[in-house]
Amino acid sequence: MSTETINTTELGDKIVKVIKTVYDPEIPVDVYELGLIYDVFVNEDREVKILMTLTTPNCPVAESLPQEVEDKVKSIKMVKDAEVEITFDPPWSQDLMSEEAKLELGML
């Protein structure tokens, strides 16, 4: 049995790229640029855990958005499994948005 070393940085970049294809339906900015993704963990078994938040706890896409992130990350060939954990600690605020997102929304 060969032990294949994975490049977690490269895989991390792929995961971010895929996450950037998921958009909040109410805001024309992807969830990554919105600052909804707090952390992405990848272990050597190629299992991914994503710590994510929503703009509000009663967000209309509270069920579908994390599922979409999870499904898209699972679709990456190098990923064995993925799990999205929702947290509201710290609560999301506009400060977490990237400059790009703020520009897109006319906040700069």
UniProtKB/TrEMBL annotation:
Residues 13-86 form the MIP18 family-like domain. It comes from the Bacteria. It holds the Pfam family FeS_assembly_P. SUPFAM superfamilies: Fe-S cluster assembly (FSCA) domain-like. InterPro entries: Fe-S_Maturation_MIP18 (IPR052339), FSCA_dom_sf (IPR034904), MIP18-like (IPR002744), SUF_FeS_clus_asmbl-assoc (IPR014291). This is SUF system Fe-S cluster assembly protein.
